[in-house]
Amino acid sequence: MAKQLPKWINREQLVLLLLGVVVPLAFIAIILFADVREGPKTAYVGVLAAIPLLAAIFGTPKTTAFVGVATWLSAFEFGNIASDGNANSQRVRLIIIAIFSVIAVIASAIRVRREEGFAQAFLRAAQADLIEVQANTDISTGLLNRRGVIASLELRQAPEMTLAMFDIDTLKQINDTYGHLVGDEVIAGVGSRLAGGFSKDDVVGRWGGDEYIVILDTPMELGTKAVLRVFEQLTSEPIATSAATISVGMSVGVATWADGEAIDGVLARADNALYEAKSKGRNQVVVAPL
C-alpha cells in the first residue's frame, strides 16, 4: 500500500520542494565533487553562482535565500579546505555568489508575486463566470432563466428560427393535491425532459412560473416537428415524484421567427397560440399563422 503524503503537503508542493531546494543542493555537491576530481582546486567554485538562480525558478524567496546561503557557505568552506592559494580569487567568487544569491531572491519574489497576481486574476474571472452562470440559470430546473434566454438570443444569427412556449396545464391542481414541493419536482422534471428532448444547439429555458421557452435554429416546418415529438414524450410518459407518478398535460404555442423580427413580436404570436391551445381544451400544440 502506497504511503500517503501528510495533509499539509500536496504533490505539487513536494515537486517544487525537490526542484527548488533538493536539486540545487545536489548540484552544489556535484560541482564541488567535480572540483575535487578535476581541479585545479576551486576552479569550479564560481559555477556555484548559478545555483541560487536555479532555485529561484521553482522556489519561494525563503527557500531561494536558504539555497543562496547554503551555496555561499559551501563555497567558503570548500575554499578554506581546498584553497588554490589565491585569496583574491576566492574573495571575488564569494562576492559573485552573494550578489547572484541576492538577485535570485529578488527574482523569486517577483515571480511569486506575478504568479499570485495571475492566480487572483484567474480566480476573479472564474468567480465572475460563475456569477454570470448563476444569474442566467433557473435554480429549480437548471435551465436558462428569462435573463439567460434573452442573453443567449443576442448571439444567434439564424435566418429563420422557431419559437415555442410550453405551459404545464395542471400545475395548480398538482400543487393543491400534493403540495408545492411535489409541484417543484414536476417543474424540474418537465425542464429535464425539455432539455433532453431538443438539440444542444437549441435554447431551452424556463420563462417563469409554469412556462418554458424553446428557440430552435430551424425553419418552421422542421421546428414544429421537433416540438410535436417532444410534446408527445412529455404528455405520454408520467413524471416520477416523491409522492406519486404524475401525468402532465402541456399546452404549446409555436411561432416562426423571421430574420430581423423583434423578439416582442414573435413572443406575442407564440403567446396567442398558447392561449388558443388552452382555450381549445389544453394539452395540445397550436401553431401561430405566419
UniProtKB/TrEMBL annotation:
Keyword Transmembrane among UniProt keywords: yes
CDD domains registered for this protein in UniProt: GGDEF (cd01949)
Keyword terms, alphabetized: Membrane, Transmembrane, Transmembrane helix
Transmembrane regions listed in the UniProt entry: 14-34, 41-59, 94-112
SUPFAM superfamilies in alphabetical order: Nucleotide cyclase (SSF55073)
InterPro entries: Diguanylate_Cyclase, GGDEF_dom, Nucleotide_cyclase, Rev_trsase/Diguanyl_cyclase
Ranges of residues in domain GGDEF: 159-290
GO molecular function: diguanylate cyclase activity
SMART domains tied to this protein: GGDEF
Protein's name in the database: Unannotated protein
Species of provenance: freshwater metagenome
